[in-house]
Amino acid sequence: MHFELIEKREVLSALVAKDFKARYKDKALGRLWSLADPLVMVIIFTIVFEHIFKMGQPYFPIFMLLGLTPFRFFTNSVNGASLSAIENAQLVKKVSFPRIILPLASVLSHMRHFFIELTLVAALFVYFTGAFKLTINLLWLPVLFAIHFICIIGVALCVSALNVRYRDTQYMLNSVIQILYWMTPIFYSFSIVPPKFAKALMLNPMVGVVEGYRAVLLGGVAPSSTLMIAGAIVSVVILVIGIIVFKKYEKIFADYL
Amino acid sequence: MSEQNTTPAAQMQAPDADALTHEAERVERQTAIKNAPVVIDARGVGKRYEMHRHRSMLLQDTAKIAFSKVEKNYFWALRDVNFQIRKGESVALIGPNGAGKSTLLSLIAKTVCPTEGKIDVRGRVSALLELGAGFHPYFTGRENIFINGIVMGLTRAQIEARMPEIIAFSELEPFIDEPIQNYSSGMLARLGFSVAASVDPEILIVDEALSVGDAAFQEKSFQKIQEFKQQGCTILFVTHSLDLVTKFCDRALLIAQGQVLESGPSEEICESYKVRMEAGTLQGARSPHETVLMPFWKRAVAMGVLAAGLGVVVATGIHFVLGNTAGMEKPAAAKRFEQGQKASP
Ligand SMILES: Nc1ncnc2c1ncn2[C@@H]1O[C@H](COP(=O)(O)OP(=O)(O)OP(=O)(O)O)[C@@H](O)[C@H]1O
Ligand SMILES: [Mg+2]
């Protein structure tokens, strides 16, 4: 399967481009829309938390964007992957190609978007704080991104295959994402979580990822190793489950579309 | 025809000479095919589909699992199918609706996996499976050609080089940059065939797709298929037009109820198909179903889940209604509620 994937990388990149394009096809302002969405959220949350509750988090908009952007990469990829086989049903039913390309293309196309958003966050960062903290700890970024990516691919494989067989997967997924949204330190910091809940929260790999990005980019320090190791272990477990589930269902994709 | 210009004598001779050369060509072709390698080999192939399948995992299904005796109903769309096709052969699959022809073609195109048996296919397959052929409605004709070409195994550069040729063949230039959701079904068939024909197939599969094309395009497509045939391409063809079968195909497989009933020269098989149809002895889909009983453990688990769910609901209810009379600490909400009651006159 993996050999085939290397052979078919042209298919993958064509589907990534197609997915990226399809998302903005019907929208007048194209991809500007998808940038407006997080910006509106950040503005509202900044008003609420900084000016009404007076939480006193330094650089709150950046702080929040560093949580929101990686989380949106997660939710958008996973949502996109859950629909990837259904949206490409015509292709699945009529041409034979490694099915794993479908969720992968969806994730990679959102990864492209994530990098665009990150660049904008970096620009805002410089605007707010004046300069980057260029420390050796920036080398942790690839490690954090790897955990982030593995977690996303694992969930994406799982839901894309399950949704072909059980169409309510995407609705359940929406509920789960709602819960995860509050269980990820997006507009709060992990340090304010009472120790009673902290352990349970660590099962969510996005906690380690978001806190890691913040530590490295905002604080200029190394990420917490406990959070990172917990995130890495859970992500790998999710990936293994995802591969098993995908293998089980990929053979019957065309039967159920 | 051009008979008007020929002398009566030539007129008498021409058909005979024609028939002779045709016969000679036919024999030559048949011996060539007999010695050619096998490119499609089906051994004991079967495909089973689930019937009235449920597609959700929610509570309603937990109840279904807990209380129904049957887990699944299966239906065999194909069963015990054995045949071989040699390189360069052109073979028609004929049979009534629901016989399993399209299913068999999807198995050969490897978009569907067989439930049992093995099917070996050697060579690059280009499949035009039923109407439309792998197209995304919001994208333009050009973008669809691109994606399809890539998925069928062409490289980016190859598609770009062939693009003008593909568009010219489809005769869709004025609409090629329109989203294909605005195409007519015949236009889609044109697009589909043009792409399928552009990938240098070694095995070409055509499933009824051409029937919606107009006469001119059908003629053009068959000429193209004829060209492929001459180049030694293996062709598999599903159609309900028996004239086309006798005209184009060396061999035909008669399929009904998920099985290959007969295989042989196309004229013979078409005759036999007509006779059987008139006698009314052919049925499309296979009727016998297979049911799988719900395994005991699944029912046990589902009952457990239902019981647990019920238990939680009842326990919460008791907890709230009876408060600490049951020896439990009164929940905060209940206390607040009581306090509110006391406070208000
Ligand atoms: N995805 C599927 N799920 C369930 N049943 C299916 C599926 N695809 C096909 N079938 C069933 O398999 C049987 C064979 O279908 P198939 O499409 O192969 O028939 P066909 O010979 O091509 O008929 P036609 O001449 O109408 O095109 C039919 O009874 C059909 O209902
Ligand atoms: Mg059919």
Give the arrangement of secondary structure elements:
The complex is a heterodimer of chains A (257) and B (345).
Chain A: H1 2-7, H2 9-24, H3 32-52, H4 60-87, H5 89-94, H6 101-129, H7 140-165, H8 169-182, H9 195-201, H10 205-219, H11 225-250, H12 253-256
Helix pairs in contact in A: 2-6, 3-4, 4-6, 4-7, 4-8, 4-10, 6-7, 7-10, 7-11, 10-11
Chain B: H1 8-35, E1 38-51, H2 59-67, E2 70-86, E3 90-94, H3 101-109, E4 116-121, E5 125-128, H4 141-151, H5 156-170, H6 185-197, E6 203-207, H7 215-230, E7 234-238, H8 242-248, E8 251-256, E9 259-265, H9 266-279, E10 289-293, H10 296-322, H11 332-343
Parallel strand pairs in B: 3-7, 3-8, 5-6, 6-7
Antiparallel strand pairs in B: 1-2, 1-4, 2-10, 8-9
Bound molecules: adenosine-5'-triphosphate and magnesium ion.
Magnesium ion binds at residues 101-102, 207 of chain B.
Can you give a write-up of this model?
The complex is a heterodimer of chains A (257) and B (345). Chain A has one domain. The model of chain A has no long low-confidence stretch (mean pLDDT 86). Chain A has 257 residues and is an all-alpha fold. Chain B has 345 residues and is of the alpha/beta class. Among the domains of chain B are: 184 residues, P-loop containing nucleotide triphosphate hydrolases (Rossmann fold), CATH 3.40.50; 47 residues. Chain B has a six-stranded mixed β-sheet, sandwiched between helices. In chain B, a hairpin with a 2-residue loop joins strand 8 and strand 9. In chain B, helix 4 packs across helix 5. At the A-B interface, helix 2, helix 5 and helix 12 of A face helix 4 of B. The complex binds adenosine-5'-triphosphate and magnesium ion (MG).
Write a concise keyword list for the protein shown above.
heterodimer, A: 257 residues, mainly alpha, 12 helices, globular, B: 345 residues, alpha/beta, Rossmann fold, 6-stranded mixed beta sheet, 4-stranded antiparallel beta sheet, 11 helices, 47% helix, binds adenosine-5'-triphosphate, binds magnesium ion
